[in-house]
Amino acid sequence: MSVIINLSIFPIDKGESVGSYVARAIKIIKESGLEYNFGPMSTSIEGEWDEVMGVVNRCFQDLKKDCDRIYLNMNADYRNGAPGRIKSKVTSVQKKIKQQ
Amino acid sequence: MSVIINLSIFPIDKGESVGSYVARAIKIIKESGLEYNFGPMSTSIEGEWDEVMGVVNRCFQDLKKDCDRIYLNMNADYRNGAPGRIKSKVTSVQKKIKQQ
Amino acid sequence: MSVIINLSIFPIDKGESVGSYVARAIKIIKESGLEYNFGPMSTSIEGEWDEVMGVVNRCFQDLKKDCDRIYLNMNADYRNGAPGRIKSKVTSVQKKIKQQ
Amino acid sequence: MSVIINLSIFPIDKGESVGSYVARAIKIIKESGLEYNFGPMSTSIEGEWDEVMGVVNRCFQDLKKDCDRIYLNMNADYRNGAPGRIKSKVTSVQKKIKQQ
Fold it and tell me: Which of A35, B16, B65, C16 is the least crowded, having the fewest Cβ atoms under 10 Å away?
């Protein structure tokens, strides 16, 4: 569980509404069984590097079937030996905000 | 409320633990009164362009006080005449997932 | 000259070819007089924080005139007291590659 | 040659100067034989999806050897049946700027 990524992926050739393509990616993320957090701009996914990159690959391959132009943005935060961070990062910062 | 951004900002010159700096940025986002969604990798903020960019500016100016190297990553999604999207984008995609 | 950003900005509601919109943004970057480096995926711009963010703002305001949905991705690297980095970062890494 | 990515990868646990780690990543990119464009904030790499993602994987695995915290930012632009874009995207936009 050493990597968390933030993933956005959507077609550019399908006009203004891309929600149905985003939904297909989220479905693949869900089916991976990895911990995830779905937000308004991106989805965070936590796992080992190979697992997480496998999900990114499956999302891309799925959209590629019927999209001629795809944009993907990804940030990754790797931390050696730090499991369960998708929740702990949020609670740790929330504690610090209260202490300010 | 036409823009949602996804913002990550943290120092690179402070070693591995940057949570206290992230907490300072979140506090500024909170105090802005704008709708926001705090996640493990970034914080989404919704508002008019000038409001949102004002918050980004205040976060940067605050970290700049005591950080010599700062990294910032931002994605913005502008949609003309589409208020309240920080929630509606999530619920709209969730509906589409159920329909799959 | 303490900040370098990497900027991508393009409409999502105009179909697959967005080059003419990208060209409008580059023109604004050029006219700013700031040091810049135009690449296949983004444009790097170097200056003081306020100058660089002013350029980002002008690019957005220009596309907003005729685009109903705009996506923007930006990374910023701030380093206190480090001018002329848009060139020096590249040459410094090139030296390190030779030493390997 | 259907994908161009923009890649930044660097450790967060090694202090302010990360150039030697960036140099290691660039060396791996060079050795891949793929077309690339090294800029001040990121490196663009063009190839087939699997080739490009293989390079990203090798860069990560290399830094992981001696870095305990790594940050990675990646944008990808996929276009069906469009080879040689790392150069053509730049020249196409440059032409459009002249026509303005």
Answer: B65
